[in-house]
Amino acid sequence: VQLVESGGGLAQPGGSLRLSCAATGFTFGVYAMSWARQAPGKGLEWVSAISGDDRNTVYADSVKGRFTISRDNAKNTLYLQMNSLNSEDTALYYCAKHLTNSIASGMDSWGKGTLVTVSS
């Protein structure tokens, strides 16, 4: 299993970024996937999850209405569209593979992360 995040960078408050996570080494469409983040000096925070069949999505309250998770199973890629960014969104963002198609299952593989910095 290999998960490689990209798309991070510097964004202004109120701006947008789109993160991608390229997945290899497993049958991508069979498994739920998540995004999580770790802000400087803070613990890991789960952000959003999507089922393998793309039927179910869930979001943390902190990002609900601003972030959208999606996936392209034909391209083995997970996405996170982030809008209305604020300084509290500054973090290292990770994608993670779940144990099954269900977003309720645990996560067993993680990427190395992509850094998002929100600053004027």
Tell me what you see in this structure.
It is a single chain. The chain has strands at residues 2-6, 9-11, 17-24, 33-38, 44-50, 57-59, 67-72, 77-82, 91-98, 107-110, 114-118. It has 120 residues and is an all-beta fold. Strands 2, 4, 5, 6, 9, 10 and 11 form a 7-stranded mixed beta sheet that branches. Strands 1-3-8-7 form a 4-stranded antiparallel beta sheet, with no helix packed on it. A hairpin with a 6-residue loop joins strand 5 and strand 6. The relative contact order is 0.32. The mean pLDDT is 97.
Q: Short description, anyone?
A:
With 120 residues, the chain is an all-beta fold.
Helix content class: under 10%
Straight-line N-to-C gap: 37 Å
Number of strand elements = 11
Q: In angstroms, what is the radius of gyration?
A: 13 Å
What attributes characterize this protein structure?
single chain, 120 residues, mainly beta, seven-stranded mixed β-sheet, 11 strands
Helices and strands in order:
Blueprint: E1 2-6, E2 9-11, E3 17-24, E4 33-38, E5 44-50, E6 57-59, E7 67-72, E8 77-82, E9 91-98, E10 107-110, E11 114-118
